[in-house]
Design brief:
Length: 157
């Protein structure tokens, strides 16, 4: 008699190759009794691209952009605006080199990153402010005066 792991039916679910690979990895671990190294997680660093997660919010008078850049130094981050495009780029450097071959798992990604964000309106480039605290880069992009909403007074006659 064979005992099989119970899996509840989830109806129609989009096919996910990574989910299938994780299931296969779990089955190997069940058979061999230890964590089994997988090929798909051992891609060379130059083949693994990463980009920081970002948030973009629009306020009445400015745009606010936040990017997650944990463990980075201010000197390794470059922020620029060209026309209506904000560009954040930089490099996350490895803290130390490990020469051991028997990694169990390494999910941290190092190397260069590049993010470009198209802004819906022009910004006042002279008043842009950027700050970096606790791994979060925050950029305030004031809207150009000509695109900011103006309140128009109504006169009564």
């Amino acid at each position: 008699m064979t005992i099989e792991r119970w899996r509840p039916r989830r109806g129609l679910v989009p096919w996910s190759p990574f989910e299938m690979m994780e299931e296969m990895e779990r089955r190997f671990e069940d058979v061999f009794g230890r964590e089994f190294p997988t090929v798909w997680r051992r891609l060379p660093a130059e083949e693994r691209a990463w980009a920081p997660a970002i948030e973009v919010m629009e306020k009445d008078d400015k745009f606010l952009v936040r990017a997650e850049l944990p463990g980075m130094k201010k000197e390794d981050i470059d922020v620029s605006v060209t026309g209506d495009t904000l560009t954040i780029k930089g490099e996350r450097k490895a803290e130390s080199e490990v020469k051991e071959e028997n990694y169990y798992r390494s999910e941290r990604v190092y190397g260069n990153f590049f993010r470009s964000i198209s802004l819906p309106t022009s910004v006042d480039t002279k008043k842009i402010e950027a700050s970096y605290k606790d791994g979060i880069l925050e950029i305030g992009l004031p809207k150009a005066p000509e695109v900011q909403p103006k309140k128009i007074e109504i006169s009564v006659k």
